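Sanity check

After download, print the first record. It should look like this:
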Amino acid sequence: MSGGRFDFTAPVPPAEELGPVHFVAIGGSGVSGVARMFLARGIPVSGSDRQDSATLRGLERDGARVHVGHDAAHLGAARTVVVSGAVPEDNPELAAARAAGLRVLHRAQGISALLHGRSAVAVAGANGKTTTSAMTTAALTSAGVDPGYVIGAPLPGSGTSAAPGAPGSPVVVEADESDGSFLTYRPQVAVVTNVQPDHLDHYGDVATLEQAYLDFSRTITPGGLLITNADDAGAVRLAHRARADGLRVLTWGTGGPGAEGPDVLLSELDSHGMTAAGTLTWTVDAGSVQAGTSVQLRLPAPGLHTVHNATAAVLVATAGYQLALDRAVDGLERFAGAHRRFERLGERAGVEVVDDYAHNAPKVTAVVQAARSAAAGRRVVVAFQPHMFSRVQAFSPGFVAGLAGADEVLLLPIYAARERAEHFPGVSSALLADALRERPDGPRVHEVDAVADAPAVLARIVAGGEALVVTVGAGDITEVGPQLLELLRQGEGR
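Expected structure tokens:
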């Protein structure tokens, strides 16, 4: 359950039985994709958002009835209301739906309603969900399947984060563990990239979080498959417990010191410039691939973590759906990335700018390491907007260790999200700044008081020298990269 509001263990009716569906906050990237999938099924859709946007107009063109602002009258003839977990109970449309006894579904349950009669791949984990989901979609497509997908970021090829795919084809779903909603999907194939402490504001402690992942594995349909990471201690514990439940489990990993022997061994890992590579060797028969098979994977994206993500995608295609290994690999070697996942925004005056959504400590570490590889000798400048006071309070040593790999770090104020600063006295970006300055080998540290100040400060930091700038965070820091590029463009014209 999510704060007592939704029962994610309860079955959800098929989409065709929901009647007209109203989406609250329909303009959001996650909710709008689900609304489009309902429209594609011929189901009447309405929705509202607090402000107008190109997304709302696009949904209107696709056949949705959309409204700007929230009002109970916008429900119209809706029989079901779909909301994201961020919509408060006092929202007038949600409150009216509750009072009228309408069916109210979380966004994840709305997706679940679309999965009846379809095979589902659910990708969960603290880090790498979006990229692994996007890579899985690419691998399945290259191997001859037209999958549906609901992912946390738009794909470059389609420009959208969700698509229905061909009738009867698998649907790839990014399964969010943050609020427990990943329990709703009932997948045939599940991927867990890693099980690491995060979202403790919801779960309370690591034991409860790990139990949630085990509960997730128990939602896999009979005869299904769990694919997970033998290099991650939490995922190894999950694999052991899932096997004890009788579930079929397949693992990948490097088999390094302290790591469990994987079913697919990764070796010869390398990241240089904007590419990464590795060799995959099967130690067991798995789907369409026999034990002893080896294949080299070359990816157009930096960072050793991308090889791990791609391996999971290969295993979904070959072990989950018996598809051809060479065709799945070919799709990954042409993978075009996903929005805000080490996304290259452009280059001006010798400065390349990349944007990334990383917001927990392991993700930040991976992004900085990937930047160091991609920089090819240039300075690495990281602009970081911490996400949520509770994360900074609980995990500041991990953030500091990850950021320490940069040459220069610009710290923005914490993005509060659903939290309030007064509930976390003494917690601010200064905690990270002070700890970084105490490191004898640490980066130069800069701070700004507002997001709006960041582009100009970055422009001064990179003036007169080649650099790779990475803007990092899950808040509104995404505005900074384009503004920095514009400032650099203006500087070229002087």
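If your output differs, re-run the checksum step. Summary of this record's structure: The chain has a mean pLDDT of 91.
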